[in-house]
Write a structure and sequence with these properties.
Length: about 120
């Protein structure tokens, strides 16, 4: 789902047991603000193509160093590397379970099949 040429250090957290906000956080980094913007755009397009979904919320900070795509059950955080280090989202949500990317991709494929 993500452009792995741009997305770095992808982490998927299952927050369903620790928050009512969403079921999953997908967190990734990019090296430049241009890459943050491009990666966010790529994710929006791919999710729409694969699942027919658009984000209910689409936010970015004034400097475009942290973009958030809110799909309700999944919230995607695309951060500039420095912001990710500073805000340390994974540490804040350390009580959530981490899911490996392969499992996430398989679950996404299963979900796509169910939607057909």
């Amino acid at each position: 789902m993500m452009d792995n040429k741009l997305a770095k250090d992808i982490v998927i957290l299952d927050i369903s047991n620790v928050s009512i906000m969403a079921d999953y956080f997908v967190i990734c980094s990019a090296e430049t603000t241009t890459q943050v913007r491009a990666l966010s755009s790529s994710i929006r397009e791919k999710v729409k193509e694969l699942f027919g979904r658009i984000p209910a919320g689409d936010e970015s900070d004034a400097r475009n160093r942290w973009n958030l795509l809110d799909y309700g059950d999944v919230i995607v955080h695309v951060l500039h590397r420095e912001e990710r280090e500073f805000y340390a989202i994974e540490k804040f949500w350390s009580h959530a379970c981490t899911i490996d990317e392969e499992t996430w991709m398989q679950e996404s494929e299963d979900m796509k099949d169910q939607l057909r």
